[in-house]
Amino acid sequence: MTKRTKTESPSDSVKTGTALALVPTLAVVAIFLIGPFNWSRHRSWARTVTCAFVGLVALRYMAWRLTETVLPYPRDGVNFYWVWFVFIVEALAFIEVVLFLILMGRYVDRSAEADRLGRSFFQRRQSELPAVDVFIPSYNEPLDVLERTIVGALALDYPKDNLKVYVLDDGRRDWLKAFCEGRGAIHVTRSDNAHAKAGNMNNGLKVSSGDFVAIFDADFVPYRNFLRRTLPFFSDETIGIVQTPQHFFNVDPVQSNLGLENIWPDEQRLFFDEIAPSRDGWDVSFCCGSCSIARRKAVDAIGGFPTESITEDLLTTLSMLNKGYKTRYLNERLSMGLAAENLTGYFVQRERWCQGGIQTLYLHNGPLRGPGLSLFQRIMFLPLSWLVQYLVRFVVLLVPVIYLWFGALPLYFTGVEDYVSHQVPLLAAYFLLMLWITPTRYLPVVSSAVGTFAAFRMLPTVISSLVRPFGKPFKVTPKGSGNEENVFDAYTFTWIAGFIIVTAVGLVINIVPETARIEGAFSVIAALWAGINIVVLVIASLICFEKPRRLFQAFKLDEPVSVDGSQGRLVSLSLEKAVVAVPTESRFQSTCVRLDIDGFAPIGAELRQVTQRRGDISRSGDKRRYYLHLHFGLEGAERDKMIVKLYTGRYSQDIPDIDKVAVSVNLLLRAFGRTRTA
């Protein structure tokens, strides 16, 4: 028996073991500080090296999990199968992560290529430029949504003799026909709505003849330079589609319900800003429907837009790959549209994307059976993210609950130090990678909360899509006026509240010695895991409470303007309202005023409110500016001119960076406020 020296004690051994266990994590942090955080994240070599390093950390973890925590577990009944189930779910997550790392190992920015190709493409005479048809498929959208898109499409910077705008109306509305005729757009209907959006666009192909087809959903407004930036890519005859990102002029329900409208980007920014350019670097980018342009010859080669799936855009890409055509992604803001305006629309949209992705597994032109696809393309077009991410999030919530209530270990536990030395480095490596690659699009806790919130509705959709992939018909995302209903998501909140309660009660029960059901070193890990889950669930629960939708989608700007001859600054503008900052000495005799905006005829406006802002009061207490809230109603050509001004490229609603402190403070205030309300 080894004798312990006078200076050695059990506590010293524990401290030494814990310190050694943290060495791998500290090494991961040090490598990121020395390497990636000093490299450009847009260089492919830097991405490749960093992603390969994170992949090795993940492989080390999985090797430890299999050899040290799964295979040694005795076959002692139900718990044995639970251990293997958790490991299989982790293995699926590992595969998804590896594919993600491979994907993010490349990055391409095609803006310089667009510049170069554009110079030669537009040197030709107008008569030599290709004819372009703009398709605007519509079903039930109101005029306040459609007018922006139609007017914006007609204002595209392209010779009018070479451009036609088709409004494909599956709602067969007389008022829309009249609006199109008044603006110069072509109104197209059909006798039925067979095959939904894809069938509608195929009907558009029958009545049009342009060399290229640009597609904008009814709620997306093209910027004036859209064609000038995208068309030159078709100089390469192998290019079938050019896709551009989807940006939004409103906040999505996640931003709104969390109270992060001005400090947290919309949920789709991660895909369009980071993932899509990386997919393009591997030649596996895909059409996302709206804000894209396709070569008609390529569309004809695949027999028109595919109707077998409710996501015709993804299937169009796969069908074109079958024929040798490629998709290019130009990561430039070239349009703006409406994000889902409430949780109902949010889930209609996501469930459609999920079901459509899974449907491709069963189709002859999908990633498994489609001809002409390389093995790499087949793998990269598998809907693995839809299949895995929500299952993983659900199991992450379930593991500590199962342990706290039933004492069922999720692995053969070899000690806290062993666990810390293998899992913590992996978590650190992944989070640091995401913070490096997507510095303005990702925060671990908030991003996890958004995914957790979605999991309770999306996991049933994944299961039903696997069992009955064609069981649900195409459903249009509701948008615009008439879509103002704000509904408390009781279904999701019930699940979240249930998990918070069983997790918290499980913790309390096991803190009290008389009621404790578990013992052993894993209890520390389980308690920490449960605590993190509760924080994530609390944030996720806030998304369930819908906030009233803004009536005005205003743009922030700073331009000179005058009100009844008094000079001021135009700080906010929408189609119905302007906010003007004027000096405090300004005086107005009436609430009916004249607003003069550069480029517009004088606008008669109603002064409904005068406000001040805290930042405009000096330390001495002197008030510096008034803010006039002016309401007006534009019609005809003047309203169209305002649409072009606001929505076709001059302004944006981007959130360029994440204020991490502001996000944390806002979430705390929102949670505290919701608790007090409850």
Automatic annotation (TrEMBL):
<feature type="transmembrane region" description="Helical">
    <location>
        <begin position="20"/>
        <end position="37"/>
    </location>
</feature>
<dbReference type="InterPro" id="IPR029044">
    <property type="entry name" value="Nucleotide-diphossugar_trans"/>
</dbReference>
<keyword id="KW-0328">Glycosyltransferase</keyword>
<keyword id="KW-0812">Transmembrane</keyword>
<feature type="transmembrane region" description="Helical">
    <location>
        <begin position="419"/>
        <end position="437"/>
    </location>
</feature>
<keyword id="KW-0808">Transferase</keyword>
<feature type="transmembrane region" description="Helical">
    <location>
        <begin position="44"/>
        <end position="62"/>
    </location>
</feature>
<feature type="domain" description="Glycosyltransferase 2-like">
    <location>
        <begin position="134"/>
        <end position="302"/>
    </location>
</feature>
<feature type="transmembrane region" description="Helical">
    <location>
        <begin position="449"/>
        <end position="470"/>
    </location>
</feature>
<dbReference type="Pfam" id="PF00535">
    <property type="entry name" value="Glycos_transf_2"/>
</dbReference>
<dbReference type="GO" id="GO:0005886">
    <property type="term" value="C:plasma membrane"/>
</dbReference>
<keyword id="KW-0472">Membrane</keyword>
<keyword id="KW-1133">Transmembrane helix</keyword>
<feature type="transmembrane region" description="Helical">
    <location>
        <begin position="490"/>
        <end position="509"/>
    </location>
</feature>
<feature type="transmembrane region" description="Helical">
    <location>
        <begin position="521"/>
        <end position="543"/>
    </location>
</feature>
<dbReference type="GO" id="GO:0016758">
    <property type="term" value="F:hexosyltransferase activity"/>
</dbReference>
<dbReference type="InterPro" id="IPR001173">
    <property type="entry name" value="Glyco_trans_2-like"/>
</dbReference>
<protein>
    <submittedName>
        <fullName>Curdlan synthase</fullName>
    </submittedName>
</protein>
<dbReference type="InterPro" id="IPR050321">
    <property type="entry name" value="Glycosyltr_2/OpgH_subfam"/>
</dbReference>
<feature type="transmembrane region" description="Helical">
    <location>
        <begin position="82"/>
        <end position="103"/>
    </location>
</feature>
<feature type="transmembrane region" description="Helical">
    <location>
        <begin position="390"/>
        <end position="413"/>
    </location>
</feature>
